[in-house]
Amino acid sequence: MNRAQDWWGKYRLAPGRMTSLEVGSFGLRILREDEQWRLAWRNQGDPLPEVVELRTNVDPEDVEEGMQQMRFGAGSRDERIEIRPLTGDRPFVAKPEVPLCILPGEAVTLYITTPISVGVILHEAKAPQLEFPALRARDTWFGRDNTEGQLCYASKTWAQMSRETFRPWPHRAVTAIIISNRAHTPLSLDRIKLPIPNFTLYQDEWGCLRTSGLLLKRSDDQDLAQARLLEPAPSDHWTLLAPPRAVLKNRFLEAFAEVF
Fold this sequence. Notes:
By secondary structure, the protein is mostly beta strands. It has strands spanning 9-12, 18-23, 26-33, 36-42, 52-58, 68-73, 80-86, 92-96, 100-102, 107-115, 117-122, 130-133, 139-143, 149-157, 172-181, 187-189, 192-194, 201-203, 209-211, 213-218, 224-230, 239-242, 252-254. It is built from no helices and 23 strands. β18 (201-203) and β19 (209-211) form a beta hairpin.
């Protein structure tokens, strides 16, 4: 596998100059003007392109039709910007294209990809002033009814058994999930809820985006599963890119419930 291209980092942007980023289906333009920053972005289109192109300190270009825009007032002459990959801000409900059934007493490892977010930091702030989902996912409700549950993003996935079957998409991160069915009944995986905000984001030795792993252990015939995050070993040579947004406090997750 060829190493994936990095598209994030810290830069200086002179007045009257522009930084342009194309990563997957996401496009971003950052223009430094006198006393303000102007940002334009889009995150809709083909969900699986492998485009990566970063140009910094180039001549300004016209904003594409359909791009959203925002301005930031800045009287100082600070030219520092940072583009940073982030995990998504909500859980993702992954729906395999072909449902999978895990027999009692069996365990499988699945690999699922979800779109990441792109953060923009101006003037070396501690947190991104703006962040954008690299792909606009649709909203879904995950729970037993319309009062008990959680608002999530919906994502179709292949839920592959091998990491090597995935291409190195620059705007999607791969999560390894170990599902252990210790109940006395088969477990039908029609949908799986991934606690994406609780994952750490990494870059592996091939330059691909990866998250913390997840162990889900089902011990009875309910939708609750005992959950444990799995972090890479030092020998894996992964690089930390972004810490989790929130700590996983509950050891038991409603991971296999139906979407209402």
